[in-house]
TrEMBL record:
Matching InterPro entries: Efm5/EEF1AKMT1, Mlase_EEF1AKMT1/ZCCHC4
Organism: Dispira parvispora
An example Gene Ontology biological process: methylation
CC per GO annotation: cytoplasm
Family: Belongs to the class I-like SAM-binding methyltransferase superfamily. EFM5 family.
Protein name: Protein-lysine N-methyltransferase EFM5
EC category name: transferase
The UniProt record lists the keyword Acyltransferase: no
């Protein structure tokens, strides 16, 4: 599929398909309920207690493959914590944030800006975010111009979504902020213009696969990330 519209189904069909898939996954024990939190017994048993969340296609959610989520999380830990000692924001990028929480050795100044309130299980590290209102961030406005690293995965490939998400990024970014955008290659020209980034050779993978070609865009190069220009 080369056009984003090809990904869309009618609201009724999409809801029915999502409900069927989630029921099948729950029946097979592949997905835990979003509200599932660690218990004393599960912690003592060494079982993975990280909350699991199923994709909500009505919110245009497409989870990263675990290897991509870990790659992003490791970069965040390095750039925002190890090197810069500054806060990191994950904008509409919950699976990378969750992976960071799995990997961190101690408390990390990391925040998830996300519309889906299921992730409020992460307490003060969750910031309710609606890209339609890019600067309505509540008390999180205190972080204006302070973010050392921002990961972004805009939920839609539409110009309105990308433009408003870019406003949020500009508002939060420190002068030396490392910006990483994971989105479709088809919108590369607009993404480069709005976020002042370039496409890299890294191609994100998604848990259930996507027909559209995705790329990681950055405003910097490193030994792992080289611009594809």
């Amino acid at each position: 599929m080369d056009d984003y519209d090809d990904l869309q189904l009618s609201g009724h069909a999409l809801a029915a398909l999502q409900e069927f898939i989630q029921e099948q996954q729950l029946t097979q024990g592949k997905v835990a309920t979003p509200s599932a939190l660690p218990t004393v017994d599960s912690v003592d048993s060494g079982v993975d207690t990280t909350p699991k969340f199923s994709e909500d296609w009505k919110l245009s959610q497409f989870w990263y493959h675990d290897t991509t989520a870990e790659f992003y999380a490791q970069l965040a830990l390095r750039y925002a914590v190890t090197e810069s000692q500054g806060p990191v924001a994950f904008v509409s990028s919950p699976t990378a944030f969750i992976k960071l929480k799995e990997l961190e050795d101690g408390p990390t100044e990391a925040f998830l800006l996300e519309y889906d309130s299921r992730f409020a299980t992460y307490g003060e590290q969750f910031v309710k975010y609606d890209f339609h209102k890019p600067l309505e961030l509540g008390s999180f406005k205190a972080y204006k111009g302070r973010m050392k690293c921002i990961f972004v995965d805009p939920p839609y490939l539409e110009e309105d979504c990308l433009t408003k998400t870019a406003l949020t990024v500009r508002y939060l970014a420190a002068p030396d902020c490392k910006i990483l955008i994971s989105t479709g290659f088809v919108v590369r020209e607009l993404v480069q213009k709005l976020f002042e980034v370039k496409p890299t050779t890294y191609e994100p993978r998604h848990q259930n696969g996507l027909a559209n070609e995705f790329r990681l865009y950055t405003n910097f190069e490193s030994k792992e990330l080289r611009w594809d220009i």
